[in-house]
Amino acid sequence: MKIQIKYINGIRFRRFIMTSSQRIFQNKDHLNSINVFPVADGDTGTNLAVTMHNIVEGMRDFRQNSFELVIQRIAKSALKGSRGNSGAILAQFFQGLAEATRGMSRLTTVTFSQAAVRGAEQAVKAIAEPREGTIITVMRDWAYHLHQLAQKTPDFVELFKKSLHKARKSLAETPEKLAILKQAGVVDAGAAGFVNLLEGIVDFIEFGRLRKVQEERKSTLSSLPEESFLHSLEKAQYRYCTECLLEGNNLNRELIRETLIELGDSQVVAGSEEEIRVHIHTNEPEVVFSRLSSFGTIVETKIDDMWEQANLVKEQKKLKKVALVADSTCDLPEELIKKYDIRLVPVTVQVEGQSFLDRVDISPAEVVNLLENTSHKIYTSQPPYQYFEDTYNRVGEEYENILSFHIPAKLSGTYQTACTAARQNKYHDRIQVIDSNTSTIGLGIMVLNTARLTEIGASLGQLKERLDYSIKNNRIFISLPTLKYLMRSGRLDRLKGIIGSMIQLKPILTLSKDGDFEVAAKVIGLRRLWDKTLELACRYAESIKNPCFGIAHVQDRDRANWYKKEIEARFPEAEIYIAEGCPGLSVHIGRGGAAIAVMGR
After folding, report:
1. Is the dihedral of CA 536, 538, 539, 545 positive or negative?
2. Which CATH architecture fits 8-210?
3. Hey, which bits of 199-351 come out as E strands?
4. How far is 329 from 331, CA to CA, in rounded Å?
5. Who contacts 224 (Cβ-Cβ below 8 Å, separation ≥6)?
6. DSSP 3-state assignment of 271?
7. Do the Cβ atoms of 147 and 113 come closer than 8 Å?
8. Which of 132, 159, 432, 516 has the most CB atoms in a 10 Å sphere around its CB?
9. For residue 437, is pLDDT > 70?
10. For position 226, what pLDDT does the model report?
11. Where in the chain do CATH 3.30.1180.10 domains reside?
12. Where do runs of H (alpha helix) occur along 363-517?
């Protein structure tokens, strides 16, 4: 049966806005990356996200049923918390909705569409010099189309879905209406944010949640010369993005706009007769505040140096030369993964026919709990192709080159899937897929060493040369305190496993030169297992130059710390990293298992 929504009240609209705010948060970085108008300061996504965050905070404990009360709260929260040009325009749109729906506890499609038109018109009036091809164009096109549709349907589901198509079409046309967008090869960032808001509403209506939507996004600066983009703020006539919140009685937005007109550009004056948010680009913030103080009380101010922001953008561009991607068997401390922006593609953990994404849907602790407290068959499989495709698309927007590191081809189909996804990706000429010939913490320290080289400015050629050395000069030693999980996952013949378990046999695995598992040693008893694993790692470290170490453990930090202490005593100058073993490792070796990786540098 087709779901229909014949009216919107306060509770429903609150849910719409709370969900749509998440869509803007999801796309914040992308919106920043395509922000070239009115100035290329790379903060439209942040400004819209901050504005929506303040709305969400204002609505969090507000559970009124009346649409009038809810939209008034939204408008007030947006005005107080709006940031930037687009944030102020969005706040004025909500203010227009609030003014048009006074006394209304619920809205039909017709009354809502009338209010939307009022909101769009108010948003245009808030801008001193409105330009076509921006957020106001899409907002107005959507609202007028909404009004036409509302005459034909009483159903909000149909109304929002069909009007979203119009908004997307209008967004796609913004480069044809604003030359700087066409030159840069992007759509307007503020307009894209407004479409994101509408997408969130449609998702909630259709699914009761937010879908993961993969958009075809053009890379910023596809045709605009990089130097032109990076220096656009420095060459701007006005230096300071200036904002304030003004409170008073009978505030006149038009008079305030006229008072500030010669002090700058990109002026937006949004709000009501009691509260007004002023946004302007100027060289004289103090003069702006002085003139505004004659109208009422200034309760909040913000000044951003846009020329300084340009310098920061340039610095960030310098850092974004080489992106690092790895599958989630890459074990590293979480803080290092975040610091170096290492993108992980999750392998899949299969539990009794159910699939869980490594590090996303399931943690090492949860894997160990399942191993110890259920009889389920648990094993790992390669990441789905789509996850590589999605990751390469996102990273390709931000980086000039992509190095994608993976466990050996002989151990998993992960490497081949990455190769296929790379070949078929639109950024295929930027992507290089690397068979690391190692796994878990060995893969982790290889990626980490590469990240540190990119940080100091190593070229792509230098990175590849160092990687060739690292691949040839690394070893990993994995201690297995029990054989039962190898048997359960199907990696070990059951009869051999039973016999080995009976005599307390403890194997130590390593990887051969061609990337396949082989037994490095077999011992009897746990104590000899720990000692022998340490001995093998240290013996190899003595044979190479400048060794560094990585230790991955499965729910046994004490054992990892013991390994580290012993290694430090023998190699006091060496760097040693400890990480929790990924679920992919945990599945096969269980609690107490550990891996020591050694790499020459």
Report:
1. positive
2. Alpha Horseshoe (1.25)
3. 240-247, 264-271, 275-282, 297-305, 322-327, 343-345, 348-351
4. 6
5. 36, 183, 184, 185
6. strand
7. yes
8. 159
9. yes
10. 45
11. 475-600
12. 364-373, 385-396, 414-424, 440-455, 460-472, 484-489, 494-502
Q: Rounded to an integer, what distance in angstroms lies between the CA atom of residue 89 and that of residue 274?
A: 17
pLDDT at 210: 46
Q: For residue 285, what are its two tokens?
A: 């913030």
Beta-bridged to residue 162, according to DSSP, are: none
> Which tokens sit at 73?
């709260």
pLDDT higher than 80, residue 22:
yes
pLDDT tens per residue, range 346-364: 998 888 878 888 888 888 8
- Ramachandran angles phi, psi of 274, nearest 5°: -105, -30
| Buried b or exposed e, range 426-463, using 16+ CB within 10 angstroms | ebeebbbbbbbbbbbbbbbbbbbbbbebbeeebeeeeb
- Alpha-carbon span 490 to 483, nearest angstrom: 11
Average pLDDT over residues 438-450: 95
pLDDT score of 497: 46
Domain 475-600 falls in which CATH fold? Hypothetical Protein Tm841; Chain: A;domain 3 (3.30.1180)
- Percent of the chain exceeding pLDDT 90 equals 51
Instruction: Answer for the pair 135, 191: CB distance below 8 angstroms, yes or no.
Output: yes
Reference 236, options 326, 131, 309; nearest CA is 309
Of the chain, the end-to-end C-alpha distance in Å amounts to 64
Per CATH, the number for 318-471 is 3.40.50.10170
**DSSP conformation letters of 314-362:** HHHHHHTTEEEEEETT----HHHHHHTT-EEEPPEEEETTEEEEBTTTB
Q: Say if residue 222's pLDDT is above 80.
A: no
Q: In sequence order, what are the beta bridge partners of 322? A: 401
Instruction: For residue 409, give both structure tokens.
Output: 């081809």
Instruction: Give me the sign of the Cα torsion angle 152, 113, 161, 182.
Output: positive
The alpha carbon dihedral of 110, 114, 117, 123 has a sign of negative
